[in-house]
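ASSEMBLY PREDICTION REQUEST
Request ID: AP-0331
Submitted by: J.K., bench scientist
Number of chains: two
Total residues: 882
Priority: normal
Notes: Please return the full assembly, not individual chains.
Input sequences:
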Amino acid sequence: MIHSPYIRKPASVQSVMLAVLLALLPGIAAYVWQVAEVVVVNLLIATVTALAAEALMLAARRRPIAPALSDLSAVVTAWLVVLCFPPILPWWVTVLGVLIAIVAVKHLYGGLGQNPFNPAMVAYCAMIVAFPSLMSQWPPAGQLDFQTQLDLVLGSARQLDAITGATALDAMRTGLRAGGASVETVLQQAGAFGAVGGRGWEWLPLGYLAGGLYLLARRIVTWHMPVAFLAALALISTVFWLADPAQFAPPWFHLATGGAMLAAFFIVTDPITGATTPRGKLIFAAGIAVIAYLIRVFGAFPEGIAFAVLLMNICVPVIDMKTQPPVFGHRGGRP
Amino acid sequence: MIARLFNFRGGVKPDSHKNESATTPILPVVLPPRLVIPLRQSARSAARCVVEVGQKVRKGERIGEGEGFLGTAVHASTSGTVAEIAPHPMAHASGLDTLSVVIEPDGVDEWIEHGPFDHRSVPRDAALKYLRDQGIVGMGGATFPTHVKLGSGRGIDTLVINGAECEPWITCDDRLMRERAAEILSGVAILRELIGAARVLVGIEDNKPEAITAMRDSAAKLSEPIEIVPVPTLYPAGGEKQLIRVLTGIEIAQGKLGIEFGVQCFNVGTAYAVHRAIRHGEPLVSRVVTLTGNVERPGNHEVLIGTPVDALLPLAGPKPGTDRYLMGGPMMGIALGDLSVPATKGSNCIIAASPALFPPPPPELPCIRCGSCARACPASLQPFELYWFSRAKNFGKAQEYHLFDCIECGCCAFVCPSHIPLVDYFRFSKSEIWAREREVTAADQARDRFEFRNFRQEREKEEKAARLAAKAAETRAKLSDTAESGDTATAAADEDPKKALIAAALARAKQQKAAIAESTAQASGDVSATSDARRDKAKLEGSDATS
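STATUS: Completed
Returned structure:
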């Protein structure tokens, strides 16, 4: 027998995931237009891999396949994996990354809603540890024609040093560590930099920002995480930058480079692996920003968001437990 | 003065579907072929039957006497003959039968003698008793006795009148306010006098402009400090605690009463019933019920208390495709398993449901922790956490996360993108916890009984041993008695067995007396142990409610 309520809002997991995919489109458009058209091929490979892996795992776990496939959550995971991987990776690295995300991180933990770790971030961490050189090959924006990109992805010979350069974050890091250099000299020397971030690449954050604002307007995500993440990243980079402008890049550089904007609206905001209470969301997102900054500036990797996300994923249960909001009528008292 | 409005967190905006039934006037009573009047009008108390089968009753005649603190009287809704006094199914989620008086109407609808009651000329207690004897209870759905809510007449500063009617489809209060605003406000004035409040706030959702206008026009003619306040349309603004929050900013925690905060709340229907009772001397025998949904003629009807639902349905004409009927609104109402159940004092609406209007829920998907439910929860709970705990049957954690603050309004399940019937999980957890508490109490009692039994057996064994010893001594004495024949040496010893015999007899008598005394003590001890356990449990519940 069905009990009250007898009416439901026309909302579904599918519509939530579809909104996320739509919100990724401006960023993807900027990617195609400014950086590398081949990202579309990667998205296709990843989507097919994700759906196949999801179907196989559901079958192996004897779960109904159609409803889970049509919820589009696997596609969201696949797209996020592609967007945080370099675009000219051989196809099998993308496939491997997606398999790790879907099979190991999602289904081995019990499927949708059960995974404690962000699938795309685990995939990124696993791949950068397994294939550090491949995962560091970021092409300079708009300098390879589509055929070359396609050849690289589909596996013909690679002459990598000739075509790849350092990302803005990487160039800044190695530049500063060379000794005697300052932020200013590094920015002048390398060709990797644009107005605020990486040349060409800096259009992507604008696209992600646009998509993120759409998600906020649709109330798919709340303001807490993007604001806390970006504010904390801006704050910590400002503090270091003000303390020593020669050795630390300005805050806008950190906001516009790497995966900052993608993370702010699409990675950090993953509801399944993130904190859920309003205060918990602020702590969670700000924690990621601080750890990511520290890894970027002092750590062994140019980009630290993925590790930061996983570290904060571990903290989610305790954050949620300690930040339960007061219940109606109990405000001021013990929650 | 324009009151500052407050907001409560959460809430949802379902399609209101009020227009279907709100446009036509309230239609007069249609006598059903028989009335089934439950003596239990609320979960808390049942009335004692004061009529017999075959007895003639007139409309308004008392058929049930209120018993206990929460008891209220029950009346015949029309004149006729008592045909049966038997358990009958009632519209309640439990589906349990309740003792009911079945009346066959004579068609005359003849009232008992009645006239206005001057509540000002009698002591306050007498006025409250009068309301209790007129069967006045809350008409918003909970049917809590009004005289109890009126309390001591001290300490209430603000009287809140609930005309919010936030559930979709229901329009009985809307029509009542549009058509009988003056009578409602007359009842409000009486309630204000009885409760001693300084100000009255009537909250009406702003999707009922006609009702607001009608109530304002009527209020303007009175010198009473009654303020009609439109409140934003947001389900569940008509929840008592939510409305109090919106109008006064006061948050009343679960388990607390308005009186502790100087505020009390009554439904507009209750105010109208108070007016009928005091100004006309009419007990509560009818109410307005909305008949709507998949029907030909949606509208509002004056309905006699006890009218079976299947007698009401032809008034609205259910259309083909109706697959079930809901009593109450679509957010909190119950699906009727049996259409012979009667309309009671708390029945505000009957909805004919069809798959087109109320589609069956899509399959349940896993929770993605999106937090929509937490944002929608008017009690500021984290429903998805409660859901995880309920699924895991981790009831301790569920209580720690304030499961019992859940008012089962349905907002969480309404918004859930995974279509999880969250409220069902919470109802399950609550009933499991209640069942376990009962088990614990029962186990405590059993243990007490067992321990006492052991103690008693031990004691009886000792008593038996003492008796045997005494008897042995006696026998020894007798033996020495017969053996003795003039031996002076034993003459002195002869005295002793005799003494021992007498002493043993005395001891036996004493033991018997003690045993009787103890067995009565043990009986009363049992009782006090049980009541101790109950008190402990009540303490536990109390601390749960307030922690």
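REVIEWER COMMENTS: Confidence is low (pLDDT under 50) at residues 525-547 of chain B.
SIGN-OFF: pending second reviewer
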